[in-house]
């Protein structure tokens, strides 16, 4: 029963990711003063499903001189890990009650770096190798900040689960929100930190050599993680809204996914050394300072 | 714990199922040699393109490793604070963060954090 429930959960998750891409394209169209996809069925509603079908029906290629096993494994690994992260979501129906969901999120999101690294390294192309090296350096340096933030949140919650933030006390996290958003942007490789796939320099970054189903897997995993981070923000920082309106966390998740698209459209890409410097010399000292600032709250 | 394992196996089976579906419906035109070569423009690609990465990169990953280890040590703070050692836990936490801060300043002064040099 539980397994069927989880399977349904995964399928709906993939579906929501598909429709999130449509949402992104529509919003980008809105910002660019054009229509966006509107030809397929009614105002383009079937577009993501047909896109997915088209991607799956493309030729399966394995480039010459690539490490075949690693090349084939990396996209599977990416998607499986992205689905795995969603296990930690606290749900209204008790699918799986986790006491250590924040630690779980922390672990799985740090393993996710490996799928990018393996995908870029094994496909034996300079573009993908450089893209994966860049994105690994970026995720590593932002993970130092992000994990400190997560530990700070755990210390403040006095617990390891996302579920325990469901009270008015989550209001005290609000000062951490800007930092959390920056770290999330860097962790999910979104603009303005999208160095793993900077189109103007590296053709498509670490997934240059991937096509068809494998590209779909990588794409789905990235967007699933993005949606998860939006969910996590609305759970951790805006759970004090839930007593007012039970659907507030869904609304906040949608608002934050809109915010991420908005950021993608508004800001241009950082310079790479500036990105690394921001992480180590600005954000990390700031997080450590915040740690000390929050300690007096206990007394 | 076993439940999580079952669920992960379920989701991996779903992913493999998607891959099998794609193998079934994918078009299979005869492959030509150009399709299998890495993406390049204009010239023939004929050797392995794995370039060695810089030592700076390696240093950065080492620093990250140390920082992450220290952060993992702080992971048990909720338990320490909830136990009998409440005040001592807070003092130790502050001290630990201070040491982390000092090590960061040391690395900064040492120049390992500079990406361009």
Automatic annotation (TrEMBL), chain A:
PROSITE patterns: COMPLEX1_ND1_1 (PS00667), COMPLEX1_ND1_2 (PS00668). Keywords: Membrane, Mitochondrion, NAD, Transmembrane, Transmembrane helix, Ubiquinone. It is an enzyme of class 7 (translocase). It comes from the Eukaryota. The keyword NAD applies. Belongs to the complex I subunit 1 family. GO terms for cellular component: mitochondrial inner membrane. This is NADH-ubiquinone oxidoreductase chain 1. Its EC number is 7.1.1.2. Its main location: membrane. It catalyses: a ubiquinone + NADH + 5 H(+)(in) = a ubiquinol + NAD(+) + 4 H(+)(out). The chain crosses the membrane at residues 77-96, 102-121, 142-162, 168-186, 214-240, 246-267, 279-297. HAMAP family: NDH1_NuoH (MF_01350). InterPro entries: NADH_UbQ_OxRdtase_su1/FPO (IPR001694), NADH_UbQ_OxRdtase_su1_CS (IPR018086). GO terms for molecular function: NADH dehydrogenase (ubiquinone) activity; NADH dehydrogenase activity. It is a multi-pass membrane protein. Pfam families: NADHdh (PF00146). It is found in: Membrane; Mitochondrion inner membrane. It comes from Brachionus calyciflorus. One of its GO terms (biological process) is aerobic respiration.
UniProtKB/TrEMBL annotation, chain B:
PANTHER family: NADH-UBIQUINONE OXIDOREDUCTASE CHAIN 3. Pfam families: Oxidored_q4. Keywords: Electron transport, Membrane, Mitochondrion, NAD, Respiratory chain, Translocase, Transmembrane, Transmembrane helix, Transport, Ubiquinone. It is an enzyme of class 7 (translocase). It is a multi-pass membrane protein. It is found in: Membrane; Mitochondrion membrane. GO terms for cellular component: mitochondrial membrane; NADH dehydrogenase complex. The chain crosses the membrane at residues 6-26, 57-79, 85-106. The keyword Translocase applies. Core subunit of the mitochondrial membrane respiratory chain NADH dehydrogenase (Complex I) which catalyzes electron transfer from NADH through the respiratory chain, using ubiquinone as an electron acceptor. Essential for the catalytic activity of complex I. GO terms for molecular function: NADH dehydrogenase (ubiquinone) activity. It catalyses: a ubiquinone + NADH + 5 H(+)(in) = a ubiquinol + NAD(+) + 4 H(+)(out). This is NADH-ubiquinone oxidoreductase chain 3. It comes from the Eukaryota. Its EC number is 7.1.1.2. InterPro entries: NADH_UbQ/plastoQ_OxRdtase_su3, NDAH_ubi_oxred_su3_sf. Belongs to the complex I subunit 3 family.
């Amino acid at each position: 029963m539980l397994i069927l429930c989880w399977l349904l959960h995964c399928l709906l998750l993939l579906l929501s990711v598909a429709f999130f891409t449509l949402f992104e394209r529509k919003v980008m169209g809105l910002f660019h003063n054009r229509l966006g996809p509107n030809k397929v069925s009614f105002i383009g509603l079937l577009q993501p499903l047909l896109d997915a079908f088209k991607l799956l029906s493309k030729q399966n290629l394995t480039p010459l001189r690539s490490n075949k096993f690693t090349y084939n494994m990396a996209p599977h690994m990416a998607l499986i890990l992205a689905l795995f992260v969603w296990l930690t979501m606290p749900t209204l129906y008790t699918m799986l009650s986790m006491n250590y969901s924040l630690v779980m999120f922390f672990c799985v999101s740090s393993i996710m770096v490996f799928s990018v690294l393996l995908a870029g390294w094994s496909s034996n192309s300079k573009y993908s190798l450089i893209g994966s090296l860049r994105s690994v350096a970026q995720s590593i340096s932002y993970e130092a900040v992000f994990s400190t933030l997560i530990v700070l949140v755990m210390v403040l919650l006095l617990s390891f689960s996302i579920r325990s933030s469901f009270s008015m006390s989550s209001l005290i996290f609000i000062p951490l929100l800007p930092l959390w958003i920056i770290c999330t942007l860097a962790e999910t490789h979104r603009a303005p930190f999208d160095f793993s796939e900077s189109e103007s320099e590296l053709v498509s970054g670490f997934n240059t050599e991937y096509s068809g189903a494998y590209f779909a897997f990588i794409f789905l995993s990235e967007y699933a993680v993005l949606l998860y981070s939006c969910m996590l923000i609305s759970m951790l920082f805006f759970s004090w809204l839930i007593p007012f309106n039970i659907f507030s966390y869904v609304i906040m998740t949608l608002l934050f996914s809109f915010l991420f698209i908005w950021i993608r459209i508004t800001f241009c890409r950082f310079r790479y050394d500036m990105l690394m410097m921001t992480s180590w010399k600005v954000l990390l000292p700031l997080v450590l300072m915040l740690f000390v600032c929050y300690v007096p709250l206990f007394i | 714990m076993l439940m999580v394992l079952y669920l992960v196996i379920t989701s991996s089976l779903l992913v493999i199922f998607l891959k099998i579906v794609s193998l079934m419906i994918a078009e299979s035109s005869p492959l030509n040699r150009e399709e299998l070569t890495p993406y390049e423009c204009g010239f023939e690609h004929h050797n392995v393109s794995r370039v060695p990465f810089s030592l700076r990169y390696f240093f950065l990953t080492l620093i990250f490793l140390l920082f992450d280890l220290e952060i993992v040590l702080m992971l048990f703070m909720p338990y320490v604070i909830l136990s009998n050692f409440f005040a001592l836990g807070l003092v130790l936490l502050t001290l630990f963060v201070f040491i982390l801060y000092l090590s960061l300043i040391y690395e900064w002064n040492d120049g390992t954090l500079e990406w361009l040099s």
